[in-house]
Amino acid sequence: MGGYSETTVFTNDRLLDLRTKLGALVPDDELVVTCGSYARREAVPDSDLDFFSITSASIKKGAPHWFKKVEATVKQTVGKLPSRDGAFADLVKKEGLLRNFGGTKDTNNSITRRILFLLEGEYLTNEQEFVAVRRKILEKYVGDTPSDHQLAFYLLNDVVRYWRTLAVDYADKTSDASKKKKPWAIRNVKLVFSRKLIYASGLFSIALTADRRKDDKVALLEMLFAMTPIDRIRHVCGESQSESLLQMYDFFLDKMADQLTRDHLTGLLKSEKSSDPIFRQIKNEGHYFSRELMGLFHRTFHASHPIHMAVIF
Asked: Residues 6 or more apart from 11 whose CB is under 8 A from it?
């Protein structure tokens, strides 16, 4: 696990630096959250930092003065801010994050923040509030589970919905029709590896909620979602069972840590996707990764387990 261990050291150093700096800027009762590669301990020097702030204060008159300082500190420390037209680099009301789970008011940005908060979120300030918000989200999802023997279906459906939304949105975000679209190749390989692993780690975790009381479901998910997706997979499936899959994931992390590879993929044209040897190597390994992930799913959960029917019907 060379790639993961190396990125973990780099990421932890940056997170410690950020937490120290932001702790001196942000009021004690305000929460700043990061998602993405930094939260997963997979960042490299070229990575941007996906973050958003959650507040209980009124923001009708605009963002408070400290929020601009957060942006400046992130840019100074990391070097790159997330896209301003997405779910990050934003200030959101706490009450808004804890309601509208579905329905017409549940926007693409709101489900992105909510699900990533659970599956890969990490605090930058106010750890106690971060843990409390995560528990409230889980209690809302698990609270409507009809009986103990059933899975946390409400959460399962939203995790599946988010994964399918990612897959559908990929085409729009990488369309050649707009000059504002982001490089397609890196998005493609991240969808195959890191995005898929995040989804699977959530799916595997929810599978363990069967035949548990509601409070036990919440406690279990709290424990699992406090881990990175990689550690979550290890915990649920076992170290030896997960070894082959995580070696393949390490290959992906090594490629993403290599600046020459990132630069090459950034400049790659879609017309070259079938002929470019670097892209083809990563994609072919991605196909093996998906097959191994499916195999791990079946080896961990017997065919009679309710998770199999739940993800299909």
From this structure: 37, 38, 41, 42, 43
pLDDT digits (tens, 9 = 90+) for 111-127: 999 999 999 999 999 99
Token output for 24: 């001196």
Q: Are 257 and 186 in contact (CB under 8 A)?
A: no
Tell me if 18 sits within 8 A of 74, measured CB to CB.
yes
What contacts 27, CB < 8 A, 6 or more positions away? Answer: 66
Cite the beta strand spans of 119-225 per DSSP E.
122-123
Q: Is 34 helix (H, G, I), strand (E, B) or coil?
A: strand
**Burial of residue 152, with CB atoms counted within 10 A of its CB: 0-12 exposed, 13-18 middle, 19 or more buried:** buried
Is 274:291 a contact under the CB 8 Å cutoff? no
Residue 27 DSSP class: -
If you average pLDDT over residues 240-269, what whole number do you get? 95
